[in-house]
TrEMBL record:
The keyword Hydrolase applies. The keyword Transcription does not apply. This is Oligopeptidase B. SUPFAM superfamilies: alpha/beta-Hydrolases, Peptidase/esterase 'gauge' domain.
Length: 680
C-alpha cells in the first residue's frame, strides 16, 4: 500500500518579525472532507502495515481482558445512611452505580445502569453524579461524543423515572444545595471549552431560566463548584496555574450571595474545607511546598490564617482529611507518598509502607464521626489495594485487592528505584519493574521508559495488570520521575515549566542514558512512551536524541506548541500561559520555538513511531499529531515505521468502556512487540 502523503498548502505565520511556513496548517479544518479523507487514509495504512499481526493483536487483547475480573465491584463506602458502590457484570463495558440502605445485607438499589444508557451509542461516559440530601433525586452528567461536553439528567430515585428535564452543554461538574431542589453547576465557553460560569438551577424550571451566579472573566482561570465535607457550605473554586480564589455560601441558603474567602493574588494558591467553626486550608502562602492553616468562618482573609502544619522545605504537603478525633495528612518526601495520622490532642504517627517504590493515598472518607481511615495502596508489583485503618488501635484491614484472573504471583517480579544524573547534576529517580526469570543485566532486555513531566502531576509507581503482557515477554518497564511533575516537591515542578521546560526533556534523556549505562537495555532495544504533554516530551526527545530509541509511542501528543499557544480560540490555551508561557512575549516565543516538536522536525533518521489521536479531542486537537506525522513523513530520512491511528469516535481519553480502551492498548503493545520480533 502507498505511504500516505498529505497535500502541502503553505501558510505563513508571522510574529515578532519572524516567519514560520506551515504547509499543513489547513488540517485544522475539522469539517473539510479532505482532512477526513487523509485521516482515513492514515488509518487504512496502519491497518495494512499491522495486518500480519492482527491475529496476535486480538490474542493480546483477549489476554489482557482475561486478567480483568468481569463481575467486579468497588469497596462500598458509607455516607448519608447508605453504602455506595459501583459494580460491573460479565461482558459489560460500563459500570452500574448502586447503593444499599443501612446495611450491606439489605436489598440493592440500582441508581444507574450505564450499559442501558449507552445502548446504540458509539461513545458514552458518565461524569459527575450527585444525590440530593434527602436521597430522593439523582443528578448525573453524560457525554455522548468524547469532547467532555455533558448534559445533566435527573432521576427520581423513588419512582425510577429519568425526568425529561435536562441541562445541556455543561462541564459535568455539579452539586446540590440543602433544599433538595437546587443544584449549582459549571458551564464552559462553547469555543474554548474553558469552564467559566456557575449557574443555579431549580428543579421543575427551564434551563434557559437558570441564574448565572458567577462568571470567571480572567481567561487564565477556570472555575468549578463543590460542597464541603461537612455539607454545610458550597464553594466556588476559581484557579489558574499559579493562583486560586474561593467563594462560599451556606448550603441551606441557595439564593444567598457567595462571599470571597480570600481574594486572588498572583502566586497564592489555596483550597479549603470546613469543619466546626473553621475553614481548613491547604496553601502555598509563604510556603513553597504548601502547608495547612485554619481560619474562623467569620474571618476568612489570609491575615487571619493560623498555621496548623507549618511549611517544611523537604516535604510537599499534598492533601488532608478531617475527622472529629483526628487530622490525617498526605505528604511527599524523597519522591514517595506518606500518610500521617494525628489525634487532635496527642502525638501522631506514619503509616508503614515497606516497598522501595510505591503509591499511597487518602481514599473516600465522607463521615466525620469515624475512627476508621480508608486509604489506597499500590506499587509496581502490588495490585491496587483498599484498606481500612483503625486509628486508635493502629490495626490495618485489607478490604480488597484487585483480583488478577488466572492468578498472579508478585514474588515473580522485582521493582526498585535507581537515580539518573541530569545535565545540571540533579538526581532524577527512575522506578523499574521486571520479571525476575527473564531479566539479565547485560543490555539484552527490551525496556519501555514512560514519563509525563508537566502541570505538577506526579507520575507515581502503580500496578497494571495489562502491563504483565509486556513483563511476561521480557520487557522491563520504567517510570522516569522527571522535572515538571511534583514527584520531589513543588520546586521539582517549577524547574520543569516556562523557561525551564527543557529540563523535562534533558531529564528524560538522562534517564534513557542511565538505563543503557546500567545495561538494563541498549539503544537498539529501548522504547519510550508518553501521552498528551507526555507526547510533547516524546516529540522533543526524538528531535534531540533520536538515536537513543528504537521505537516511540506518542499518545494524543501536544506537539504544535507555538501555533497552539498563539491561538486563544483553542480549548485550554489561555489557561496554560503560566505552564508554557505566552508566545506573544518574544522571549517565550523563541524559547518555545526551540523545543516545539512540530517546528523542529528535520531531515534525519527517527525511531519507529506510533502516534495516536482522537478526532473529538478537546485537549490536544486532532490536527497536532496529524500535522506532525505529515511533516515527519515528508522530512525523515529513514525507513522506520511511522504510523498514525486516529479514533474517529472518541476524544482525549480514547474509547469509552473498559474493554474498548484495551483494544487501543493492544495495538500499542503489538507495535512494541512486533519491533522486538515477539508478536508471534
Amino acid at each position: 500500500m502507498k505511504v500516505p502523503q498529505a497535500p502541502k498548502k503553505e501558510k505563513i505565520l508571522e510574529i515578532h518579525g519572524h516567519q514560520r511556513v506551515d504547509p499543513y496548517y489547513w488540517m485544522n479544518e475539522r469539517e473539510n472532507p479532505e482532512v477526513i479523507s487523509y485521516l482515513n487514509e492514515e488509518n487504512a495504512y496502519l491497518e495494512e502495515i499491522m495486518k500480519p499481526k492482527e491475529e496476535f493483536k486480538n490474542r493480546l487483547f483477549e489476554e489482557m481482558k482475561g486478567r480483568i475480573k468481569e463481575d467486579d465491584q468497588s469497596v462500598p463506602y458509607f455516607k448519608s445512611g447508605f453504602y455506595w458502590y459501583v459494580r460491573y457484570t460479565q461482558g459489560a463495558e460500563y459500570p452500574i452505580y448502586c447503593r444499599k440502605a443501612g446495611s450491606l445485607e439489605g436489598p440493592e438499589e440500582v441508581l444507574l445502569d450505564v450499559n442501558e444508557l449507552a445502548k446504540g451509542k458509539a461513545y458514552y461516559q458518565v461524569g459527575g453524579t450527585s444525590s440530593s440530601p434527602n436521597q430522593k433525586m439523582l443528578a448525573f452528567a453524560a457525554d455522548e461524543v468524547g469532547r467532555r461536553i455533558f448534559t445533566i439528567h435527573f432521576k427520581n430515585l423513588e419512582t425510577g423515572e429519568i425526568l425529561s428535564e435536562s441541562i445541556p452543554q455543561v462541564t459535568g461538574n455539579l452539586t446540590w444545595a440543602a433544599d433538595n431542589q437546587t443544584i449549582f453547576y459549571s458551564k464552559q465557553d462553547p469555543q474554548t471549552l474553558r469552564s467559566f460560569q456557575i449557574y443555579r438551577h431549580v428543579l421543575g424550571t427551564k434551563p434557559e431560566e437558570d441564574v448565572l451566579i458567577f462568571e470567571e472573566k480572567d481567561e487564565e482561570f477556570t472555575c468549578a463548584v463543590h460542597k464541603s465535607k461537612s455539607e454545610d457550605y458550597i464553594f466556588i473554586h476559581s484557579s489558574s496555574t499559579i493562583s486560586s480564589e474561593m467563594r462560599f455560601l451556606k448550603s441551606d441558603n441557595p439564593s444567598g450571595e457567595f462571599q470571597v474567602l480570600q481574594a486572588r493574588i498572583p502566586h497564592l494558591e489555596y483550597a479549603a474545607d470546613h469543619y466546626g467553626d473553621y475553614f481548613w486550608i491547604r496553601t502555598n502562602d509563604q510556603a513553597t511546598n504548601f502547608k495547612l492553616v485554619k481560619t474562623q468562618v467569620t474571618q476568612t482573609g489570609k491575615e487571619n490564617w493560623q498555621d496548623e502544619i507549618p511549611h517544611r522545605k523537604e516535604v510537599l504537603f499534598e492533601n488532608f482529611e478531617l475527622f472529629s478525633g483526628y487530622l490525617v495528612t498526605q505528604e511527599r518526601s524523597n519522591g514517595l507518598t506518606k500518610i500521617f495520622i494525628k489525634p487532635w490532642e496527642a502525638e501522631g504517627h506514619f503509616l508503614d509502607f515497606e516497598e522501595d517504590t510505591y503509591t499511597a493515598w487518602i481514599s473516600i472518607n465522607p463521615e466525620f464521626e469515624s475512627d476508621m481511615l480508608r486509604f489506597g495502596y499500590t506499587s509496581l508489583t502490588t495490585p491496587n489495594s483498599t484498606f481500612d485503618y483503625h486509628m486508635p488501635t493502629r490495626k490495618k484491614l485489607l478490604l480488597k485487592q484487585q483480583e488478577i484472573v488466572g492468578g498472579y504471583d508478585s514474588s515473580a517480579y522485582q521493582s526498585h528505584r535507581i537515580w539518573a544524573t541530569a545535565e545540571d547534576g540533579v538526581l532524577v529517580p527512575i522506578s523499574l519493574v521486571y520479571k525476575k526469570s527473564l531479566f539479565s543485566q547485560n543490555g539484552d532486555n527490551p525496556l519501555l521508559l514512560y514519563a509525563y513531566g508537566s502541570y505538577g502531576f506526579s507520575m507515581d509507581a502503580y500496578f497494571s495488570s495489562t502491563r504483565l503482557s509486556l513483563l511476561d515477554r521480557g520487557f522491563v518497564f520504567a517510570i522516569a520521575h522527571i522535572r515538571g511533575g511534583e514527584d520531589l516537591g513543588r520546586p521539582w515542578y517549577e524547574d520543569g515549566k516556562l523557561l525551564k521546560k527543557r529540563n523535562t526533556f534533558t531529564d528524560f534523556i538522562a534517564c534513557a542514558e542511565k538505563v543503557i549505562a546500567e545495561k538494563m537495555t541498549s539503544a537498539s532495544r529501548l522504547y519510550a512512551m508518553g501521552g498528551s504533554a507526555g507526547g510533547l516530551l516524546m516529540g522533543a526527545v526524538i528531535n534531540m536524541r533520536p538515536e537513543l530509541f528504537h521505537g516511540v509511542i506518542a499518545n494524543v501528543p501536544f506537539v504544535d506548541v507555538v501555533t497552539t499557544m498563539l491561538d486563544e480560540s483553542i480549548p485550554l490555551t489561555t489557561g496554560e500561559f503560566q505552564e508554557w508561557g505566552n508566545p506573544k512575549n518574544k522571549e517565550y516565543y523563541e524559547y518555545m520555538l526551540s523545543y516545539s516538536p512540530y517546528d523542529n522536525v528535520e531531515a534525519k533518521d527517527y525511531p519507529n513511531l506510533l502516534v495516536t489521536s482522537g478526532l473529538h479531542d478537546s485537549q490536544v486537537q486532532y490536527w497536532e499529531p496529524t500535522k506532525w506525522v505529515a511533516k515527519l513523513r515528508e522530512l525523515k530520512t529513514d525507513s522506520h515505521l511511522l504510523l498514525l491511528h486516529t479514533n474517529m469516535e472518541a476524544g482525549h481519553g480514547g474509547a469509552s468502556g473498559r474493554f474498548n480502551a484495551l483494544k487501543e492498548l493492544a495495538l500499542e503493545y503489538t507495535f512494541l512487540l512486533m519491533l522486538e520480533g515477539k508478536a508471534e
